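Re-run with default settings, no changes from the original entry. Doing this only to confirm the output is reproducible before filing.
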Amino acid sequence: MTERNGREAWPPELTELLRKVDKLRRSGRYTEALSRMRQLTETYPRQVRVLLEMGLTLGIWGSAPAEALPWYERALELAPGHASAQLHRALSLARLGRHAEAVADFNALEAGSFRKALVLHMKRAESLEVLGRHAEAERDWTLALAEEPGNPWLLHQRASVRARLGRLEEAVKDLTDSLAASAREGEPVDAELLRDRGVLRARLGDTAGARADFEAGLAALREGDPPGLADDLRNRLQELA
């Protein structure tokens, strides 16, 4: 029996079989989960959800995007425009460095009114930056911020791309807003953000502001900060002397 869209009807027993696979994945029993998924793809080769879950098992739980990609392709052959399959194909393509193809998939998702707009804009922005399409990336970071206003990480990402576009004052404002948002959330002061803002202030000729940021960055250093950050801050302070 088939449904109107040409795909096979959903066998009721599959719901429980996939639930068991998911339980195995989440409990760290990846090899067993993968073995069961291989059996399911052989038994139900035209079930889009099965093909998608095989891709997810390989791509997410197995960290093997190259192996996952053909399964998303097979799902899309049976169900062109399937949102989840297209999203995960785009994410896999990006992880494999095939950013132009990933952007094309993200564009198709957007045209189809994809509901997870935040994910779409963030991931497309990352690929656009790798491609050197910074103006488009800035647009996507702005759209992501419209979905989650005041997010410190998103503000930092937009600041970085705005700096590359030469929009230094706007980038400084984003970093200032990011620091303020982190403080409101009770997060410790981010020395890297202070370093980045200090660099931009120095480029704008605000030597006093840059010095204050570098000094505050040194005072805010904590375990887990990027290697070399302390030396970088000290060197930048010396350059301002």
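The longest helix spans residues 168-184. Residues 1-6 have pLDDT under 50 and may be disordered.
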